[in-house]
Structure formats: structure tokens, C-alpha cells
Design a protein that fits this description.
This protein has a single domain, classed as 3-Layer(aba) Sandwich (VC0467-like), CATH 3.40.1740. Helix content is about 30%, strand content about 30%. Strands 1, 2, 3, 4, 5, 6, 7, 8, 9 and 10 form a ten-stranded mixed β-sheet that branches. The N and C termini lie far apart (about 60 Å).
Length: about 200
């Protein structure tokens, strides 16, 4: 039952403001690092992997906020998940009842949006099913409840207001870094980078 409900939500998972057809080439994905003292509790001490496709508005997922819900509680038919502690992450305040899948793959999945080199948002239920059957089911896979989205000009306004630091995005941070270390390390890096930039004549 739970698994069927999640698969039914795959269409919603990419109901972001961009078409979810064939993989779309994206070269401007970045990390948004929430400033210290971010007033919005949805984004306090978060890092968002965000992309701005050629068509549509910016969207992405928070990569460092795990939820209490385990994948085994959602995908109940997968033996490979039983007894594991893999969790779903809070992707953002938009469409919290939907699931967003981020995968690392050598070939673009069907119905995917390219985010980084070999990293895609996908709504390919067959691919996700196959990944979850592996001995290490979450290698190169992250599942998010909801996503983060902005209207036209909204993100630019938040950046100019100083709410976000911008850093280059990389797959290793998303898939391999311990979630509790991501924001502290990146906010320190962003602060040093801004200080150096401000010190230039």
C-alpha cells in the first residue's frame, strides 16, 4: 500500500515548474547555503542543491535535513531495505506529500532533469525500483519529501538580501558527506570566500 502510494506520487515528484521529459542539460546548478540566523525555519542551517533550467524557475532540494521516516517504512516490498536505517530527506516546503528522487547514474534516466554531471532528478519508477533491489540500495540515490521552489525573481531577491551564500555544487557532498557536517563546513567556506572577495580592491 505505502509503496503503491509513493509510486503514484512519482508524477507529482517532478511536477516542478519545468517539463519532465527527456533529460535536460543543466549547467548552472549550485549550492545555496543558508546564512547564519536565517529567519525562515524551513531553511535554517540548510544547504539546497538548486538548479535553474533553461525553461522554468529555480527549484531544488535541501540535502542535509533527514526526516524520521525510514525508506523501509515507505517501500515496504523491498527486502533489501529491511533492517536498514536509510531515511527520507526533507526536500523543501513545496509538495511535501510528494517524493523527489535524485540519482547518480552514468546514463540519463528516462524522464529526468540533469542537475550535475551524472546526477539527475528523475520520475522513472522502474529505475528507482531497480536501485532499491540492490545490496546497497541507496548508493547514488536520495529520496526527498517535497522540494524547494521560487517564483520569478524571488530567489534573486533573497540572494541580494543576503539570505543565501552561493557555492559550486558537487555530487560527493550530496551523496557521500555526513549530513550533519554539510552546513557547518559550507557556511565556513562561504564566509571565508565572501571575506576574501570583500577584501579585494
Amino acid at each position: 500500500m505505502m509503496k503503491r502510494a509513493c509510486v503514484a506520487l512519482l508524477a507529482l515528484s517532478l511536477a516542478v515548474p519545468v517539463p519532465a521529459a527527456a533529460a535536460e542539460s543543466v549547467a548552472n546548478s549550485v549550492f545555496l547555503v543558508a546564512r547564519r540566523g536565517m529567519p525562515d525555519p524551513n531553511f535554517r542551517e540548510t544547504v539546497v542543491l538548486v538548479t535553474h533550467p533553461q525553461r522554468g524557475v529555480p527549484f531544488g532540494v535541501i540535502i542535509n535535513r533527514p526526516l524520521d521516516h525510514r525508506l523501509s517504512e515507505v517501500f515496504t516490498d523491498h527486502e533489501s531495505l529491511k533492517g536498514r536505517k536509510d531515511v527520507i530527506y526533507f526536500g523543501g516546503p513545496v509538495a511535501r506529500d510528494g517524493l523527489v528522487f535524485l540519482v547518480r547514474a552514468a546514463k540519463p534516466p528516462a524522464r529526468a532533469i540533469s542537475v550535475l554531471k551524472d546526477v539527475y532528478f528523475t520520475a522513472d519508477s522502474d529505475l528507482v525500483d531497480e536501485l532499491l533491489k540492490r545490496p546497497d540500495p541507496t548508493q547514488g540515490l536520495r529520496v526527498f519529501a517535497g522540494y524547494s521552489g521560487w517564483g520569478p525573481g524571488q530567489l534573486q531577491h533573497e540572494i541580494s538580501r543576503g539570505d543565501w551564500h552561493i557555492l559550486p555544487a558537487d555530487a560527493e557532498t550530496v551523496f557521500e558527506r555526513e549530513h550533519s557536517r554539510i552546513w557547518p563546513e559550507l557556511i565556513d567556506r562561504a564566509t571565508i570566500r565572501r571575506t576574501r572577495h570583500s577584501a579585494r580592491p
